[in-house]
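FAQ
Q: What does a multi-component entry look like?
A: The components come first, one per line:
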Amino acid sequence: MEIRRGIAVAPGVAIGPAFVLGAENFRIPQRFVKVDAVESELTRFRTAVAAVCEEIEVNEKLAGDRLGKQYAAIFSAHRQMIQDPKLSNEIEELIRNKCYSPEYASSRVLRQYARAIQNLGDNYLAERAVDLFDLEKRVLKQLLGERREELSNLTQPVVVLANNLTPSETASIDTDFVLGFATEAGGRTSHTAILAGALEIPAVVAVGGFLSGVSGGETVIIDGTLGTVIIDPDEQTLKDYLETAARFHTVEVQRESLTQVRAETRDGVHIRLAGNIEFPEEVDHCTHRGAEGIGLYRTEFLYIGRDIPPSEEDHYQAYVRVVNAFRDRPVVIRTLDLGADKVPDSMQGVFEDATNPALGLRSLRISLQNLALFKTQLRAILRAAVLGDVCVMFPLVTSLLELRQARMILGDVMDDLDEHGVPFRRDLRVGMMVEVPSAALMAEEFAPEVDFFSIGTNDLIQYTLAVDRANPAVANLYSSADPSILRLIRMVVQAGAKHIIPVNVCGQMSSDPVYTSLLVGLGLRQLSVTPQAIPEIKQVIRSLSILQAEDIARHAAGFDVAREVEAYLRGELKKLCPDIVV
Amino acid sequence: MDRNPVVTRKVTVNLKDGLHLHPISQIVQVARQYACEIRICKDDRSADARSPLDMLTLGVEFGSVLRLEASGDQAADAVAALESLFQNNFLPAQS
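Then the predicted structure of the entire assembly, as tokens:
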């Protein structure tokens, strides 16, 4: 039995046979091939190169359409390199004359070039070695086959173990067969973790290197509540976990009974509980738990995992599905928030070029630089708004200028729709995410220019504390309970109250029952949470009075370090709802 | 042999980051339009203008002086086309 600890990202227990997905670093299975296989190996190599070219061409088109010509140029340079006659000659010679396997020969030659470039001494040029390593990876991936496709071809229930799962891989997980998953990399707020929550399968991330010890088929337990992965459990452990799994199910069923009751404090104050979703399919998770609308509809998945950017119709169809599920409840659609940790696979290269992606071209900044992309989405939102109570929300607003620009473009799109006689809703509410410290500090100035605020705690914490939430070396410094965060939230709530606009919290902080009383005490009357957290958060709200919550918030403000705040809040939660495990 | 004289031309690299991926990619695009042999020479080393990797490993920095060398059909045209790339500092002709 081997027990590994990681970060719990989606609660529950999964027990099943291990299914290991290949690591990112390809292992070359054999260095040599038989003499009589040389011709077929050469063919295999050429086929792989052709496939890489095709793959790069697709990326080139994608990057060109979405980000502009200069980004497409990176890929056209890559394509030329892989088609470099000198390169293929050298590789083919090694296969033909030395009977090297195509994998070994390609890796060797590309690495030789990479080394030669690294040795040039010139900094900028030396960095181009990265491009060659990228090509090596692409060629090896083709030669070794798309092993990862196996994930979509499962025939029996398994527990998936991987170095990392890309968001699109996670999204393609078939929940009939994937009982749970654990990854070596990742973080609490990585996109993969958010998705695991959305799919409602137990998951643990950031386990650290453990795959080399697993060959597949072993029984594995994933405890998505405690954050442990147990490989080859002994009989007693297995028995205990089977019982835990059964109990977990019972608690779930009990909480479901809360669906029909309102999220109201003991003294009768209604806290609007809405759901955060990523895919239209998730509206069902929300409705059957009694969500009062959608507080955050992330739209990145329309862009990720596809070869061409979504058309206006693609956007529209997705939005209509969600809006139709909530005709009389608000649905807040957030415009494109790509970049940083949410980069489509096909465009990794483009974003990696930025040395500091979290501070680079992402989110609203991409939209404002790619008006065609932005307007397509806005048109679809405005059209879908006819069908229900749709609000539009801009992410990562940093300055008033950006907000005004975004609003101006929204106005242009409205005029355009008007001119063409396309039905749309002119009076839809326009809000902004408060997730950059500058926006929180300037909340007073922003408030008169928007219809609502929504505090995105994930980024607000990352930017305020200067902690990359996905970097294991500093992830422990990331805390929702930091006094600076509490103070910023209070500022935003006060600005909202002064200008009479609603304030919502939609980051992961709002889905954590530890913070519910604090947030209510700080004055929030709306929370937007991951759908499966709705019953739990509702339970906390119903066991709380406003006075009590305000007391807790006041007390929490008295601590000067995050750890004390967190310990205090945990203690209070235990008193309020002893059966909630956190 | 006289029908295929070697055409050469000296150019100076005014690119801040040296001859990196984008300019190399443009050279390859131009070179591929001609049938003649084209080489980019720096000091005592030279690279095939159709091989981006070859040119990348030359390590051409800002201020380097290169010799463009072509022989064969349309050698003069090829060299002139490449020279204009350098003269325009690899900026696109339009916009």
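Q: Is there any commentary attached?
A: Sometimes. For this entry: Chain A touches chain B at residues 73-74, 76-77, 80-81, 84-87, 113, 116-117, 120-122, 124-125, 128, 131-132 (CB under 8 Å).
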